[in-house]
Specification:
Length: 630
């Protein structure tokens, strides 16, 4: 890692003019209601480290932003590195972590809203609340605000699955139960391999914690150490705005907001304490219209639409707004301003992007032009700590037009490596290298990255070109307000210098998620492993009898394609019988079939060589693929 150049230091100094540095109200709000803080770390009762207090110690409260960090990102990091147990208002508590555990202390029991990122964190968080508040009321319900894993993964830390299955403790979630399961599991599974690599890249999980490396992830501190991910399917799906549930003696009213920050999401109003949440559609950060780890593009118009519906319904009465990330907003006027401003921010991005698209501009061109007006852009909670304006503008256009920008040269382009080689042949390595060096010496890092890209992609062993490009990426990283752009550029620099490190990507597929995976999705997942050209001439036909759900499916591979259908077919080579997790394991790792069959987990009837044929067709996903080089 190298220090900031004078150009970078100047860019970061000049950025101060864009921000309302004298608006420091967040520093009071972030500590409001603090009961126990995690700044010096947090351990579970058994001594296990849950929050590492040392990692972010260098982000000192009173320290000015170093030259290597954008001052807005530094400020947000000073705020978000806090964490702990807080009273939001009497009756509403939060254990604030990367994803918050919210505890509603209703008269007749506790309602847990979102369960954070792991079983350990959720369990320890609830224990901390009980101990500090002397509260031993039972948990009477769990609510998932949306389908992302950081909101359901801790569920088994706060309830026993048996009590959910028996109907004693409901789990309430947006959408139908089938739809929630499909999106909760599907988004993370089908492209899970590549997503974990991209997640490590975009969230800086491979970078050291220092002012030349990872400086929080903006929306959260990201300094937790826990891993156990759980899932229990919801038992009560909400698809109608205005639906009400009585939980623990209080009223929970829902506003259904699908296809926003997640495919299934809702907002919640608790009139007894005048408390409102717009879930992840309103936090102290601009959110992603396109998440760079990889997910389907979201609808910016819907963010604005549902925030406005929320204002119409509860805007006059709300006294506090809390979120599943970051800290709450108190006072009716502040809540209304916060939500109106958030609504306008998403709508502005949507409308201006499409206005420019209607003039024929493509996503890159529009992204260079759209700037938020000060009335929106100088509000800290609209700043780019999760989404970024540049890629969100691109996302709005991409959502409407798809990936082709209208430029005929991009319909059948040469691949980057081929393009790079011809470019280098034409212009000459020395000329390009000299121009790259000149660009770096004049602080023109975006151009340096572009011009050197040809050399690196034409010859990924060109250490000199890679070293120069790494320097350019690094300085660009230091200048970014968006923590994900910072992480991407700094990780690229690191990988150009040292190669790809073993990732620490989050694996969201485990027994619980496979258990909850709709069977159709399981076959979809197996199908994306099939190497088409190898499977072109095979004929594999297998029936699967799922003993746990009492259902039967048939799958076949022919013409290079795996299809599956519910029902029984007589003319198969093999029948598998067993519970879904065992069959899933067998289908995803047919090479281990003999072992699984010998263990008795799956019974077979017919010709087991069909599994050997299948095994030979299955691709293996190595998630250490290159991103900064070909
Ligand atoms: Zn989240």
């Amino acid at each position: 890692m190298k220090p900031a150049t004078s150009f970078t230091a100047e860019v970061n100094r000049a950025a101060l003019d864009r921000y309302a540095m004298d608006d420091v109200a967040d520093f009071d709000d972030v500590d409001r209601g603090l009961i126990v803080g995690f700044e010096n770390g947090w351990r579970a009762d058994d001594g296990k480290l849950l929050v590492d207090g040392d990692q972010l110690a260098y982000v000192a409260d009173d320290a000015a932003a170093p030259d290597t960090v954008n001052p807005s990102l530094w400020r947000q990091s000073q705020l978000i590195k806090r964490g702990g147990l807080y009273e939001v208002v009497p009756g509403l508590y939060q254990v604030r972590l990367s994803a918050n555990l919210t505890i509603v202390d209703a008269p007749e029991g506790l309602v847990i809203i979102d369960t954070s990122t792991s079983v350990e964190l959720a369990r320890a968080g609830l224990q901390l609340f009980r101990r500090e508040l002397g509260n031993d009321k039972p948990v009477v319900a769990v609510i998932y605000t949306h389908t992302h894993f950081d909101h359901y993964a801790g569920v088994k830390g706060v309830v026993d699955e048996v009590d959910v299955r028996s109907g004693e403790i409901p789990i309430i979630a947006p959408g139908t139960i089938e739809s929630f399961d499909k999106h909760a599991i599907g988004e993370n599974v089908i492209i899970g391999g590549a997503m974990s690599r991209r997640m490590a890249y975009t969230f800086g999980m491979l970078l050291p914690h220092c002012d030349c490396g990872r400086v929080t992830v903006g929306l959260s501190a990201g300094n937790e150490r826990s891993s156990q991910i759980s899932y229990i399917s919801p038992t009560d799906g909400i698809t109608t705005t205005g639906d009400v549930r009585r939980l623990g003696g209080w009223t929970f009213e829902f506003l259904y907001a699908p296809d926003t920050e997640a495919p299934e999401e809702f907002h919640i109003w608790i009139p007894e304490i005048k408390a409102l949440t717009c879930a992840e559609n309103a936090n102290h950060a601009m959110h992603n219209i396109q998440t760079l780890r990889g997910a389907r593009t979201r609808d910016a118009r819907n963010f604005a639409r549902y925030i406005d519906e929320t204002l119409v319904r509860w805007g006059d009465d709300a006294a506090v707004h809390w979120g599943p990330h970051t800290w709450p907003v108190w006072g009716n006027e502040n809540v209304v301003n916060f939500l109106e401003s958030h609504r306008d921010m998403y709508k502005y991005i949507h409308d201006q992007s499409l206005r420019l698209a209607n003039q024929g501009l493509d996503e890159y061109e529009a992204a260079e032009i759209v700037e938020l007006p000060d009335a929106i852009g100088k509000k800290w909670y609209n700043r780019y700590y999760h989404g970024g304006l540049h890629h969100n503008v691109r996302a709005v256009i991409h959502k409407e037009f798809g990936y082709w920008n209208g430029d005929p040269a991009s319909i059948l382009p040469l691949l980057p490596v081929e393009h790079a080689k011809r470019h280098v042949d034409l212009i000459g390595r020395d000329t390009i290298l000299a121009e790259g060096r000149r660009a770096i010496e004049s602080g023109d890092y975006r151009w340096a990255v572009q011009i050197l890209h040809h050399l690196v992609w034409a010859d990924p062993d060109d250490a000199e070109a890679k070293g120069l490009q790494a320097d350019a990426y690094e300085q660009l990283g230091y200048q970014q307000e968006v923590p994900q752009y910072r992480a991407i550029f700094l990780t690229a620099a690191q990988e150009l210098r040292e190669g790809v490190r073993r990732g620490q990507g989050v694996s969201t597929a485990n027994t619980d998620t496979i258990m909850a995976m709709p069977i159709g999705l399981l076959f979809d997942f197996v199908a994306v492993h099939i190497i088409g050209e190898r499977a072109a001439d095979v004929d594999v036909r297998i029936n699967c009898m799922f003993t746990d759900s009492d259902s039967e499916w048939t799958m076949w591979v022919r013409h290079g394609v795996l299809n599956a259908r519910e029902g029984h077919v007589d003319d198969v080579q093999l029948t598998l019988r067993g519970p879904k997790p065992a069959i899933a394991q067998l289908l995803l790792q047919p090479g281990r079939a003999a072992e699984l069959i010998a263990s008795g987990a799956v019974a077979t009837d017919g010709d087991t060589s069909a599994l050997e044929t299948l095994a030979a067709l299955m691709d293996v996903f190595d998630t250490r693929f290159n991103l900064a080089t070909p």
